[in-house]
Amino acid sequence: MRRKFLAARHDLAQRVNESSKSSGRTVFSIVNEALSAFLEAEESGRSLSSVMDEQKMIHSAKNSGMILVPEACWERLLESSHDCQAVYEGWRASGAVFGRYLRVSGLSEDPRKVEAALRTVAGGIPDITIQRDRLLFISPRLGERQTEAVAAFLEGVLAGLDLGVTGKEVSKGIVVIGLKR
Amino acid sequence: MPEKVEKKLVVVRSDILGQITEIARRENKTLFALVNEILQNALAANETGVTVGELADFYRCLKIAKDSGSLIVPSDLFISLMDRCDYNDNLKKEWYSAGQWYGKYLSAKFGEPIKVLPGLLPKILWHLSEVLIEVRDGTVAVSIIGPNSNPKLLELTGRYIEGLMHALGAKTLKDETIRGVESFVFQL
To answer: Is residue B52 within 8 Å of residue A49, measured between CB atoms?
Structure first.
């Protein structure tokens, strides 16, 4: 394997050196790993820092009691449930925990990060925008019941973030929630 | 006059350096600035207790799971819906076929899907305490361990694993369940 020299800021190279000593790895492997991870993120159209943020969000979801399940099985369970209100309540409660978790992990300061967090956990590859006075969620592939469930989850998240809700409009695939700051 | 930045040389793989140089040129940045940015991010990740390699791995696994139709849902709600619905063979069949679909997806995406399983499954089945996978002499041993997991959810996960392995052309040789642990041996 051919090797080459590369210049880096002295303080950063020093920290890499310390990290190599504490982890028992070579500086060569740590630097290559960092550069490769960057290349991989670039290839998928992401930045390394957004991948790091996403990992934090998934941890928040995991730590606030969420699990990853096959979508088809989830939909079947939702369809078989006759008590829609209980389902929506469950989503609202889960959203509140997730929102609170985002808050305590410092991810709620930047609305873009909250949008990214919601995009990560909400189903249906949604388009989510948080503006000053409203939250807009669009995911055309969601059915009516699933949209209602997402609306309840979003309401819960906003409550967890201590944001007031002034109103809510829900139609298939679209949720608009008015915000009071 | 700008402050002079102290530099230090580090050794890297030349093929990786070539690609990084190309990106720096494309983004109109100096190679020095881009490398510093990358190292800074890597060190920031390290401070949270993970390496960037693990991060990239995690991201890749999650992307595969989400692209193949997995959803993040509240576990309490999932379990209460599962308890309220008629917990029957249909639900198990659903999980089995979801696993089969995932197996087909992995086959289409990876040349040797069995090889990616040890890195992939523990990351997506995070409701379990441990997922152990050992590939040896034409067999694959999979153990899913969740002493604190809901027993029904553990059973459904087992069906998912079976569906996945069957879609990869494996046959079940052994399937044993002892409280909180389900162990399989598959013949490839």
So the answer is: no
Edge-to-edge strands, sheet with A164-171: A127-130, A134-138, A174-180, A164-171
Shortest alpha-carbon distance between residue A145 and chain B (Å): 14
Q: Which residue type, as a one-letter code, is found at position A105?
A: S
How far, in Å, are A38, A52, B62, B137 from residue B55 at the CA level? 11, 7, 11, 31
The residue among B188, B39, B31, B78 whose CA lies nearest residue A6 is B31
Q: How far is B185 from chain A (nearest CA, A)?
A: 23
As a residue count, chain B comes to: 188
Backbone CA torsion sign across B18, B21, B25, B27: positive
Locate all alpha helices (DSSP H) within chain A, ordered by sequence. 10-23, 27-43, 48-63, 71-80, 84-104, 111-121, 144-160
Q: Cβ separation of B39 and A34 shorter than 8 Å?
A: yes
Asked whether the beta carbons of residue B55 and residue A13 sit closer than 8 angstroms, the reply is no
Contact in structure between A167 and A178 (CB atoms under 8 Å) = yes
User: CB A68 to CB B65 under 8 A?
Assistant: yes
- Please provide residue B187's backbone torsions phi and psi, each rounded to the nearest 5 degrees: -100, 130
pTM (2 decimals)? 0.77
pLDDT digits (tens, 9 = 90+) for B119-177: 889 988 989 999 999 998 899 999 999 998 889 899 999 999 999 999 999 999 999 99
